[in-house]
Specification:
binds magnesium ion, 8-stranded mixed β-sheet, single chain, alpha/beta, 17 strands, Carbamate kinase, 6-stranded antiparallel β-sheet, binds aspartic acid, 2 domains
Amino acid sequence: MKIFKFGGASVKDAAGVRNVGEVLKHFALDDLLIVVSAMGKTTNALEEVVWAYVDGRDAVPKVDALAAFHFGILDEVAPEDGPSRVALEELFHSLRTLLKRPISLDVDHYYDQIVAFGELWSTTIVSAHLNASHITNQWVDARSIITTDERHRAANVKWDMLGYNCEKHLPSFAHGPVRIVTQGFIGRTEDGDTTTLGREGSDFSAAIFAYALDAESVTIWKDVPGMFNADPKRFPNTRLLEHISYKEAIELSYFGASVIHPRTLQPLQRKHIPLYVRSFIDLNAPGSTISEATDHDTLIPSYIVKPDQLLISITPRDLSFIVEENLSAIFNLFAKRNVRIDLMQNSAVAFTVVVDDNPRSRDLIEALRAEYEVRYNTACELLTVRHFDEATLTELLLGKEVLIEQRSRVTARFVTKPR
Ligand code: ASP
Ligand code: MG
């Protein structure tokens, strides 16, 4: 079995959905499980529905727009498929019913129930189109396979239940190659509540299915021809990373390279399943391979930029030692508010961190001020360079003021501001 993953950008319109069919024609003999994300920016639009709903504003116009968009695509790519139209109608009906109910549970719980529709809609449409194009397939509800805990919006997978779930819920194919179409991003608790795995979690879903099925490989089909040593939108002369190790890819995605979701690699590494990142636009492009082999890791310096960072410096008001007496309490506050630390540094009485600038981080600063003296710098950039050389560093830092610098043998990191 091969696992294919198509992200939101690859199915953002009818042409995108048709292109999925075109890609699959090149794999006529392979057993495939196809993981699909919500179409285009649907998840963002559904988040808007959630916020409207919890604020008591009218969410119906937003749902109407989403319905028009999805039915429009279905009409183009599978006009004759009555049952799929009914299935899509039923999904929209369930969402509208949910929005009529008064709010009684916590926001994150509602978020998952509502936002999950994006993937249910997209897979209904993709599956219908493939069937209409004689790529006979079965639509599978990913929630019947991916059991999770109750941590809404960032659910943890119950790995030991995957085998049983696959046996029970995956269809068997008597003839021809296996074709399963299923959702990324979503799961379900043992009590039957829908959960999500965190934004951009569909790559991770593909890896979960690969792990469960001992797949031969995972391919993430993207609008870029692979993983690059830097963001091509930001830097000229970027180079394709043709072959890198799991470890290097985990480091790169941890530092902010946005091509693959960071959690994707661990399950694949555990089962030695290679990950291919390939272009759904240019099927002849070689793409990137991520696997065990490490020989190529050090050949090309990679650089990753995170813009809009806050540099926060935290000092106890009584000047007590930061590490021994305060750090665990501070970490707790970060964890509770779900603020991810991108870089940290300490002196005797100060702890300095770099985080994304967003409302959660700003709230955290206010909470910290109850006990600590907090100062911060806005509009910083965090630059990470793997396998650096001095010439590259000089060039990258030109015209920038460096506020913090950290170096290990392979990685150099800088917090900068424009001069
Ligand atoms: N649709 C979800 C999101 O946009 C999951 C994904 O695209 O990977 O976050
Ligand atoms: Mg998406």
